[in-house]
Amino acid sequence: MSDPKETLVEAEPEAEAWFGLLDVVILVALAAFGVWWVLSNKRKQAEQAAAHKSYSLQPTSLATQTTDNSFLKKLKTSGRSLVAFYGSQTGTAEEFAGRLAKEGIRYQLKGMVADPEEYDMEELVNLKDIPNSLAVFCLATYGEGDPTDNAMEFYEWLQNGDANLTGLNYAVFGLGNKTYEYYNEVAKYVDKRLEELGATRVYELGMGDDDANIEDDFITWKEGFWPAVCEYFGIETMGEDVSVRQYKLTEHSDIDPSRLYNGEVARLHSFVNQRPPFDTKNPFLANIKVNRELHKTGDRQCMHLEFDIEGSKMRYDAGDHLALYPVNHTELVNKLGKLLDADLDTAITLTNTDEESSKKHPFPCPTTYRTALTYYLDITSNPRTHVLKELAEYTKNNKEQEMLRLMASTSPEGKALYQKWINQDNRNIIHILEDLPSCKPEIDHICELLPRLQCRYYSISSSPKLYPTTVHVTAVVVEYETPTKRINKGVATTWLREMKPVDPEKKHLVPVFIRKSQFRLPTRTQTPIIMIGPGTGLAPFRGFIQERALAVEEGKPVGETILYFGCRKRSEDFLYEEELTEYEKKGVLKLHLAFSRDQAKKVYVTHKLQENAEEIWRVLGENNGHVYVCGDARSMAKDVHNIILKVVQEKGKMSEQEAIAYVKKMEAQKRYSADVWS
User: Fold this and answer.
1) Mean pLDDT of all residues in 421-432
2) Residue 37 annotated to the active site
3) How are beta strands 111-114 and 82-87 bridged, if at all?
4) Cα 318 from Cα 628, distance rounded (Å)
5) Which of 217, 219, 360, 576 has its CA 20 to 30 A from that of 253?
């Protein structure tokens, strides 16, 4: 073998001439490639920027922006100066924003309603370019102090950016629930953050409490809001509030039935031609495979339901929620149609008279009145005051008309009457029309006024590790007598109760989708857990227990799994008794049971927690375990929180402030999780 050095030296003269030419070729090629790559990359970036809306930390001037997501352009071209943004999960915040925008006309402030998800919120920087401009934010707080889905991007922009909002005039009204720890957290933050960024607060933060009377909170806030706006801008009221219809009616005498919506949420025929991904606007039609009663005796009912999601490509985890779109009962729909003297099978379209609005119809159109009242409109909730105000215009009897006008007013007498006659007596639109027979509104106006029927959320009571193609739900049938001796029934559970899969050939289809949750088991199976879930609060823990039991079967190390469950009587409403006792026999589960009515003195899960302070501290304090609470937020969850604080303070030998900080840290680390409702 020759010496490499020697070979290289011998070849040197010939190689010198050849590689000199090659170098030139390579350099030219590289230069050409470099120019192409730079230009190509710039073009890709430009395309991506056009395709995706994104928020920069410090927005530049957007005065000339004319894209469809420009609320500034819409305000300018239509001569408006008021924009009412909403962050809404159930539709109430959107409704409040709509009412404010509509009322603005009285105060020389023509308004528009805007979904922050649909618009470029960086334009707030330049809203000051419009004289007497005002941005109002109606924002709900959801989950554990989180913004609603449609307000998330805007909220994060406020958190991460430092835009100069000097010259922006604003006001905020929050929608929350005092039974939750993070009451109106989103509204408080936005109100404070806008001021920090230089904006001017025109009126104080308003906070509505859905656990009390959020309608009263809203109209009370408005009483001070509008005078403050008038004073700030130096404008005067244009007199009495005039009723203005928001939607124009078109009746279709001859329309192809295939063009009519029949309950679809967004896309026509989406229930016939199902295609993933499935979500809030495109639910999957799941067949109910199992519907069995869980209560052994008694006059109450609790259903165990199993929804078939095979082929949907939907995935869930233990702790997630199943959302479903309910249907109003045929009997109620027919009753309302009769009270309104309407032909429910008339095909209609309601079109927004505001051409600039992104909301063209109040619900999918064209459709029939029957479909609208069955699938799209909430006909069983308590109507708000603005609905009563409109109803008064259709009422012939003077006494009945004055009563409606009084309840729609902001006077103390009117508020008290509304609270008693509507809220406490639990009257819906049907009850009002029955009790005030001279009130005969037009059905299309009723369809405009009633809120949208919202989907219902249920904690999933199964684990995908055992049931990958079915989702289990545990639901109490809602039925109760009102002070007017009427029987009110829950929309969803009344509908579901009738879906008994007796005939395997007949399907019971329900529009559903999965909503992800933060309610999760620890990643390490050896981490001990305490679960506190009286009644149907047991639901997510059934899935948790299934997963822990499976881990035991697979030979994995599994920490203590402790459940606190309570109900009225062991012989009546002990949910999943056989399953739970079997898990206990196998050593998978430790049970602490409280049957409130099985003895003279009532015993609840909170009593059982107090009895087991040593165990609680051992799991949470000494072994870094997790605690989960599911159920009633109004009293149970608060009581549990206080007991855990006390245990941490006493057993951990801490001061009150140290114990509070310890529990707060547990929450931040997701070691203390709650899935509660009021």
Assistant:
1) 97
2) no
3) parallel
4) 13
5) 360
